[in-house]
């Protein structure tokens, strides 16, 4: 009965773990692992795996993106690659943008302030922040709530640096 009560309490809050469909990829917290093994925890809307082959790929404003189709309203995940930068300054009215730099280096411009970045840095831009960046960068971008086109406003196009 304790397992059922614990599983019920997990269902009422945002889970602190991710369960994958393949048993070899099952990596939850200890509590969730115990509940899963005893049969008290079942898959719910938070459990999924998306492979790179399933991403939606596009290029725009100097960046290449691979959008992971999470089909959620609360979060989006995108892999971003650029050799020179994102040549559009924009604002998003409702989403926070969290960039994790996987590799490379460059400069983010948040509300006009230059912020140098390199591998393993994290950049957080709350809603309403003017954003663009220059440099050679590989990044993971998480937006919360999930990005919606109607929330984005273009501020201006950015000129490419002359060589």
Task: Describe this structure as you would to a colleague.
The protein has 163 residues and is mainly beta. It has two domains: 2-37, no CATH class; 52-157, Jelly Rolls (Sandwich), CATH 2.60.120.10. It has two helices and nine strands; from the N terminus they run H-H-E-E-E-E-E-E-E-E-E. The chain has helices at residues 2-11, 30-37, and strands at 56-60, 63-68, 76-82, 85-92, 96-110, 113-118, 122-125, 131-144, 152-157. Strands 1, 2, 3, 4, 5, 6, 7, 8 and 9 form a nine-stranded antiparallel beta sheet that branches. A hairpin with a 7-residue loop joins strand 2 and strand 3 (76-82). The longest helix is centred in the N-terminal third of the chain and has 10 residues, at 2-11. The radius of gyration is 19 Å and the shape is globular.
Summarize the topology.
Elements lengths: L1 H10 L18 H8 L18 E5 L2 E6 L7 E7 L2 E8 L3 E15 L2 E6 L3 E4 L5 E14 L7 E6 L6
Antiparallel strand pairs: 1-2, 2-3, 3-8, 4-8, 4-9, 5-6, 5-7, 5-8
């Amino acid at each position: 009965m304790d397992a059922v009560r614990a599983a019920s309490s997990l269902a009422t809050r945002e889970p602190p773990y991710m369960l994958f469909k393949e048993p070899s990829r099952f990596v939850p917290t200890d509590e969730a692992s115990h509940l899963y093994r005893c049969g008290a925890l079942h898959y719910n809307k938070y459990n999924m795996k998306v492979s790179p082959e399933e991403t939606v790929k596009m290029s725009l404003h100097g960046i290449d993106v691979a959008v992971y189709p999470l089909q959620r309203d609360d979060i989006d995940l995108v892999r971003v690659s650029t050799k020179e930068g994102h040549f559009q300054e924009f604002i998003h009215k409702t989403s926070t943008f969290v960039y994790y730099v996987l590799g490379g280096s460059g400069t983010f411009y948040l509300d006009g302030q230059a912020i140098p970045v390199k591998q393993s840095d994290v950049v957080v831009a709350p809603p309403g922040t003017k954003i663009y960046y220059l440099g050679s960068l590989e990044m993971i971008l998480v937006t919360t709530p999930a990005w919606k086109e109607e929330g984005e406003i273009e501020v201006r196009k950015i000129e490419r640096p002359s060589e």
